[in-house]
């Protein structure tokens, strides 16, 4: 792992008032502990089982973010402790999060993941699905979910103008929702940017970046 790169990223983020989620998926608890010793408290994982095992083993002050695609039957395992769920990509999932939040006696923070990339393989909500969720929130006012913002993943391409365009589009939607349907609530997170594209995301207005390999090194699956 690369502590120097970590500090460099932290410094870069200061100018943007953005938060770093250190993406520790597949990495051992020793690596997380090293970063914790540097003062990093927010970590991202994409598998509930792995995140829960790490949560049990490590300092309880760590804020765990679920950043991956989430199966509904896994929500219950993290409901008692998860800090932010980035990948709400269906109404059914949001309803399950509300249900498990109620069982855990908590209000669970989540981000709506929008589909902004070109590739078909990437998860995320269409505008129609977003509208469906907005209607649900308005009609049902679920008490155990807090929609705190948006998340998106840009196309994995060297075409920087395209990536910037995708990020800027999400930023616009974020501003619209923040001024409109979410104006009365704690809607304040725009999660976009990873190791390869976070500078472009910051330029487009991201206030939360999810960086893994640039800090922890390449992953072996
Ligand atoms: C793995 C992952 C990241 C981090 O990717 P890096 O390229 O290693 O920085 C960010 N966001 C999501 C949703 C991921 O799954």
Describe what this molecule looks like in 3D.
The chain has 221 residues and is of the alpha/beta class. The chain is built from nine helices and eight strands. The protein has helices at residues 3-14, 29-37, 48-57, 75-78, 91-104, 127-140, 160-179, 198-203, 213-216, and strands at residues 19-23, 42-45, 63-66, 84-88, 108-114, 145-152, 189-192, 208-211. It has an eight-stranded parallel beta sheet with strand order 7-6-5-4-3-2-1-8. Helix 2 links the parallel strand 1 and strand 2 (42-45). It is globular, with a radius of gyration of 17 Å. The two termini are 16 Å apart. The model has no long low-confidence stretch (mean pLDDT 96). Pyridoxal-5'-phosphate binds next to strand 8 and helix 9.
